[in-house]
Structures are given as C-alpha cells and as structure tokens.
Amino acid sequence: MFKTYNTLEGSDHSQPRVAALLACKNNLMSASWHMPISKSPFRYAVAVREENYTHRLLEEHGSFTLNFLPFEYYNVMDNMGRLHGNEHDKLELSGLKSESFDAEGNVFLNASDFIYACRVCDTYRNGDHTIFIVDVLSIHVNETQSDEPMLFSGRGRYASTTKAVTAKHPL
Ligand SMILES: Cc1cc2nc3c(=O)[nH]c(=O)nc-3n(C[C@H](O)[C@H](O)[C@H](O)COP(=O)(O)O)c2cc1C
Fold first, then answer.
1. 167 C-alpha vs ligand 1 centroid, how far in Å?
2. Verdict on whether the full-model pTM lies above 0.90
3. What residue owns the CA closest to ligand 1's atom 13?
C-alpha cells in the first residue's frame, strides 16, 4: 500500500507547500520551507540553506520581506530558485515591479497577494538549513487578491488549489 524511502531525495513524492519570494534588500530567493510559529506576537520561521547567497545576506542584514505571489508567476518563482544573487541581478531578471520598500530597504513586489515584513530575532542551525525566526513587523495585503495561491510540490512542479470551502462549525 505504501512504498517506503529513507531519504527525501529518493522518495520523489509530491510535497505541496506554499511558495513565496524572500526579498533581502533587492535579492529574490524562492522559498517554500517556511511557516507561522506564534500568533501574538506574530512570529514566522524560514529555513535557508547555508550555501545560498540569501543566507549570507540575512546574517548581514537581519531582515527581509516575504512576498506571496499568485499561481500565475510560477515560472518566475522557478527561475528565482535556480539563480544566485551574487552572480545575477535577480530582481531585474524577474521582470517583477517594485515601487516601495519596507523600513529596512527590502523590496515589496507589486504583484504579491500579501507581504510580510520580517526582522530576524533568532536563528537555529540544524542539518543543512538554518532556521531564521522572525518577528513579522507588518502585513501588507493587496486590495486585489488572487484566489489562486502558488503551491510548490518539489522538482519543478507547481499547482494551485482547485477547491475552496468554509468548514461548518462543529456541533
Ligand atoms: C519553489 C522553490 C522553493 C524553494 N525553497 C527554498 C527554501 O525554502 N529554502 C532554501 O534555502 N532554498 C529554497 N529553494 C532554493 C533556492 O531558492 C535557490 O537555491 C536559490 O537559487 C538561492 O538564491 P540565492 O543564492 O540568491 O539566495 C527553493 C527553490 C524553489 C524553486
């Protein structure tokens, strides 16, 4: 009934996660290993691989924006997850427009459904990623929000939600 694997790489299974563009200053990194960890104060965690340029930027700069783009931008998301910011101007290559920044100089991407402006308050190293724990200082919600969030399933596969319901209250 189940096939069993011992490594993530070997298993090749669909792992749908919300994808977002992490902008540290004007460098864009695709990110899907992220999650909310505290409601009040609102805190969030993002896992960043040590070899990524963003890792160095976050250690130096200590803040970023997390830009949640609608599904239609999946090609941009994929490209920003293949290039490195110390070799390319990724904002320029993305073709995405940015007309404003947070207080720390991290770009807001106009196309985002919503954006979290984040400041690092803690880090935790384990395995091959560092978990950056952040205070979400402000939440910016687009007036025209898409109903197609971007999910990344691994290995270049993207999807969006096909069904949306509101659950009934329990009896
Ligand atoms: C959809 C998608 C999600 C990704 N999620 C993460 C992630 O959560 N953490 C991470 O370290 N790398 C992640 N990556 C890989 C980085 O985006 C990739 O290594 C990127 O080139 C790093 O850019 P940088 O060197 O400019 O920081 C993801 C890639 C894709 C395509």
1. 33
2. yes
3. 31
User: What are the start-end ranges of the E strands in 40-128?
Assistant: 43-49, 63-68, 100-101, 107-108, 114-126
* 3 state DSSP class of 156: coil
Instruction: Look up the domain containing 125 and give its range.
Output: 17-159
7 within domain boundaries = no
Q: How many domains does the chain have?
A: 1
Largest CA distance in the chain: 57
Residue-by-residue pLDDT tens, the chain, 171 positions: 999 999 998 998 889 999 999 999 999 999 999 999 999 999 999 999 999 999 999 999 999 999 999 999 999 999 999 999 999 999 999 999 999 999 999 999 999 999 999 999 999 999 999 999 999 999 999 999 999 999 999 999 999 998 888 999 887
Cα(45) to centroid of ligand 1, in Å? 15
